Amino acid sequence: MTVAKGIKISELANELQMTDAELVLALNDLGVKADGPASLLDFDTAVTVRQMLAGSEKSVEISATSTLKEIAEAMGVAPNAAVKKMMELGQLVAMNQRVNKDAAEKIAAAFGFTVKVKAEPKPEPKLPARAKPGSGVMPVRPPVVTIMGHVDHGKTSLLDTIRKTNVASGEFGGITQHIGAYQVEIEHNGESRKITFLDTPGHAAFTAMRARGARVTDIVILVVAADDGIMPQTIEAIQHARAAEVPIIVAINKIDKDGSDPSRIKQQLTAHNLVVEEYGGDIIAVPVSAKTGVGVKELLEYIVLVAEVNDYRADSHGHAVGAIVEASIEPGRGPVATVLVQSGTLHVGDCLVAGCTQGKVRAMTNERGERLYKAGPSTPVEVQGLSMAPDAGDTVEVVKNEREARKIVDERLQDARTVRLGDNRRGITIEAWSEKVSEGELKDLNVIVKGDVQGSVEAVVSELNKMSADRTDGEVRLTVKLSGVGTINESDVSLAVATNSIVIGFNVRADQAAQRAAERDGVEIRTYNIIYNLTEDIDRAMNGLLAPIFEENILGSAKVLQRFQTPKGQVIAGSMITDGKLLRGADVRIIRGGQTLFTSRIDTLRRIKDDVREVAQGFECGIVVENWNDVQPDDVLQCYEMKQIQRF
Ligand code: GDP
After folding, report:
1. Which of 147, 152, 200, 233 to mutate to test the pocket of ligand 1 (most atoms within 8 A of CB)?
2. CATH number of the domain at 430-547, please?
3. 196, 379 in Cβ contact below 8 A?
4. Could you tell me if the CB of 290 is within 6 A of ligand 1?
5. DSSP code, position 56
6. Which CATH class name applies to 144-310?
7. Helix axes 79-88, 101-110, angle to 10 degrees
8. What kind and span of H or E run contains 457?
9. Mutate which of 157, 223, 228, 253 to test ligand 1's pocket (most atoms within 8 Å of Cβ)?
10. How much is the average pLDDT of 123-152?
11. How many angstroms separate the alpha carbon of residue 287 from the centre of ligand 1?
C-alpha cells in the first residue's frame, strides 16, 4: 500500500468548496506555504486549515455499517490517509472494514470533524411476540418452563421426577437422552397437554439466554426447600424471574422431611412480594416432594392452568424461528445443538443460521432418542449439521438456502469484529479469563480445539466436556465451539475473536498468518503435546487459579534537552535517547531529580518532521507525553512495558 504524504491543495479546495486560487491565497494569509493546486499539504496542517477555514462545526454522518473508506470519503480525505491516521491512533483498520462509533469519532476528530450518527430504521423483531390472551388466531403451543432456586433445594431432583412422571403416555423413564430440554404430556380435563421443561437449572444460564435476547421461558418454577427456607439464590431467582416478566409458581419441596414447614415458607415469600393465594395474593404455591413424587402431578396441573390463562400461542406454519438451549461439540458427532422451536416448523434438510454459525439440519432427535423429521412450536430437538457450536440463547432462523445462511453469518462475524473494534486486544487469554473467574465476573470459557488426528481431537474434546460437566456448581462452564484436524489457521483465530474463545492446539502449531492474526487481535493460542498438561491448565483456570503474572520490562530512557510548544499548544520534549529505545504508545515515567513525578504514555515520537514508531539510543527526537505539559530540561523519560510472563 502506498500511503500519500498529504492532501493536494486542489482536493482540499474542493472539500472546502473554494477555488484553488482562493485556498492558496487563504493559506498564504495563514502563513502556510502553498505553490499551486498540485502541491501537497501535510495532514496535520490540513486539519488546522480545515478548522480555521471551515469552523469546527463540520460534521460527518456515519451509520452502523460505515466503513473507514466511506467515512474518509465523506470527510473528503484520501482513504489511505485515514488508514494511516488510524494506525497513528493505534488501531489497525482496513479501508473496507466497518468502524464503530468510538473509532469513527477518533478519526473524524483527527481531521477536524465531529460525528453524527444516522438514525437506522429498527429491524422488525423476528421472534414471535407473546400472544395476547384470547387473540385466538394461532394454534396453542405448550408452555416452556424453567426451574430455579437455591442450590440443593432439589431442582435437579424435581426435573428428574417430572421426567419420570409422564402420566398420559404411561411410559416410565422413557426419556433417555440429556438434550437440555424435554417435553412431558399430562392429562388435563380429559385432554392431553404437553409441557416443555428447560433442563438447565442455574440462574447464569437463564440470564445468559435473556442477555442474548432469547425470550425462551414462559413460566418459572421457584423451588424452595421446606426445611431450609428462602436463601440468597432463591432471592436471586425471584429477581431474575421478575426481570423476565414471567409468572412464578412456587414448589415447596422436601415436604417428606421431618421438620419441613410449608407455612413458614409461605410467610417468608410474602416478605419478597410473593403473596400466596391463602394470604390473599395470587401466587400459587404447591407442596411437593421430589423424592416421593407427592404433589408433582398437582404442580404439573397448575402449570397447565397458568398456561391456559396466559394463552401461549404460536404460528406453526412457515420457516422455523427459535433459540439455542445448549450446544457442544460431541466426539464422533461434531457440533450438536438443542434448538427450542418457538414458531414455524423445523424440518430435516432446512438451512439454518444460529448466532454466528450456520448449517443444514442433517438429523433431529428428541429426548427419547427418536429421530424426528419435523418439529413445531415449543418442541426441543437436538440438531446435527451446524458448522460449529453456537451459544446458548443464540437465535435460530431457517433461511432459504446455504448461500443466504453464509451471507448472514459473514455479516454477523463482521459485526462481532466491529463491536470489538476500538480496543485492539479483542480476544481473551486463558489467564485473563481465570482472573475474571476468581473475581466471580466471567463464567463461560469458549475454546476452539485443533489436533493432529481425529482420535486426539476427540480425546481432547471429550476430556474438556467432561471437565465442564463434572463441575457441581454449574456456574463455570467450558464450551468447545469448534474442533477439527489440522494446523491452526487464520480462520480459527477470527472465529476465536467472534466467539471470545481461546485456541488449543494438540500436537499441532499455528501457521504464520494465524500467529500474526492472534498477535494482532489478542487471541491466545495454547499448544500442548501432553493431554495431562492441557487438562491441568484448564482445571486451574476454571478454579480461578491461573491469574496472569506481569513483569516490568524497561525499554530505554531519554533525557530532555529543550521544551517546545506548537502554535496549537502541544508541548514537545526535545530529547536525546540515552539508552535502549523509546516506543510510541509505550508506558513512560517522568523522573526529575531521581524522583518519579508522573507516569503516562508516549503519545507521539517525532524524528526531524516524521512521526516514527520508535527511536533508538544516540538519536534526538521530539516526544509528546500524554497529559503532561510540565516539561523541563534534564527530566528523564523512562519508557517501559508490562510483560506477561509465560508459565510454561
Ligand atoms: P439442586 O442443587 O437444587 O439441583 O438440588 P438436588 O436436586 O441436587 O438435591 C439436593 C439434595 O436434596 C439431594 O441429596 C437430593 O436427594 C435431596 N432432595 C431433593 N429433593 C428432595 C425431597 O423432596 N425430599 C428429600 N428428602 N430430599 C430431597
Report:
1. 152
2. 3.40.50.10050
3. yes
4. yes
5. T
6. alpha beta
7. 100
8. helix 454-469
9. 157
10. 68
11. 14
Q: Is 196 within 8 Å of 145 (Cβ atoms)?
A: yes
What integer pLDDT is reported at residue 132 of this predicted model? 45
Residue nearest to atom 20 of ligand 1 (CA): 154
Task: Enter the C-alpha cell of residue 438.
Answer: 476468581
| Residue 444 CA, ligand 1 centroid: distance in Å | 26
Task: Give residue 130's pLDDT.
Answer: 44
| CA dihedral over 486, 487, 490, 496, signed as positive or negative | positive
Q: Which CATH superfamily is domain 321-420 in?
A: Translation factors (2.40.30.10)
Check pocket membership of 153 for ligand 1, CB cut-off 6 A.
yes
pLDDT the model gives residue 4: 56
Q: How many CA atoms lie within 13 A of 414 on its CB side?
A: 16
The answer to whether 84 touches 72, Cβ cutoff 8 Å, is: no
Please check whether the two domains, 144-310 and 430-547, share a CATH topology: yes
Residue 199 and residue 179: Cα distance in Å, rounded?
Answer: 8
- Cell 414447614 belongs to 261
Each residue of 402-442: pLDDT tens digit?
Answer: 999 999 988 887 766 555 444 445 667 777 777 777 777 66
Q: Whose CA is nearest to atom 25 of ligand 1?
A: 254
102-113 pLDDT per residue, tens = 788 888 888 878
Q: Does domain 552-645 have CATH number 2.40.30.10?
A: yes
Which grid coordinates are listed for 42? Answer: 501535510
* Cell of residue 602, nine digits: 508516549
| CA gap 46, 40 in Å, rounded | 10
Cα distance from N-terminal residue to C-terminal residue, the chain:
39
Cite the DSSP H helix spans in 165-295: 203-211, 232-243, 262-270
Burial of 200 (0-12, 13-18, 19+ CB in 10 A): buried
Domain residues of the chain, as ranges? 7-117, 144-310, 321-420, 430-547, 552-645
Q: Which residue(s) pair with 323 in the sheet?
A: 340, 395
The per-type count for the chain, helices as H runs and strands as E runs, is: 17, 31
Q: Give pLDDT tens digits for 447-460.
A: 899 988 888 888 89
Q: What is the pLDDT of residue 56?
A: 46
Strand-pair partners of 562: 574
Cα–ligand 1 centroid distance for 156 (angstroms): 7
Residues 29, 30, 34, 40, Cα dihedral to 10°: -150
294 CB near ligand 1 (under 6 Å): no
